[in-house]
Every structure is written in structure tokens, then in C-alpha cells.
Amino acid sequence: MPDKEGRVTLTIMGSFHCPSCNASVRASLKKIKGDEIGSGQSKKELLIQAVNLVREPTPIDQIEITGISSDAVGKAIKLLIGQGKLNGMVEDGIFYPKY
Hints:
Strand content: 25-35%
Radius of gyration: 20 Å
Strand order of the largest sheet: 3-5-4
Largest sheet: 3 strands, antiparallel
Number of strands: 5
Order of helices and strands: EEHEHEE
CATH topology of the largest domain: Arc Repressor Mutant, subunit A
Number of helices: 2
Mean pLDDT: 81
């Protein structure tokens, strides 16, 4: 059944058969939303890639990442700069990259 946003969750199942006692165990190994298949990257990784492509001062609301609002992009950029994962600064809603 799809969730309220229409995404389907795929469950990857695993099975283990014990050679010594013949017990068999099945378990869920991973759950993937249908829109994540093939992307392989988190929103954080996508944001870092997008911001690293910025070469000149750019308003934060023009940096677009699918599934992330412009407010969240601004907060995330500030956080990633503070963590040292992005080079640059944000001032008055504009991202200034540093090389």
C-alpha cells in the first residue's frame, strides 16, 4: 500500500539457514521508499553536491533541491558550513562560496 504521498515501500528480506541445527530465520534487511530507488544519495549528499557547483554569490532561494524547502536549504547550508563540510558563508540570504 502506498503512503499518503503515494510512495511505495519496498522491503528487502534475508534468510539464514543454520547448518548445525537446521533452524531457518527470515528477517527484514532494509526498507526503501520507491522514490529512493536508484538515487543512492541522501538529501544531505545532494545538497552538498549542488552547493559545491555554485561558483558565484547566489541567493539561497535559487539553490533548489528536490524535496527540500528553501528555508530548510538555508538552515542546512549554515549547519554544513559550521561542520566544515561546505566552504563559504551565508549573509543576508545569499551564499558566498569560498575556494
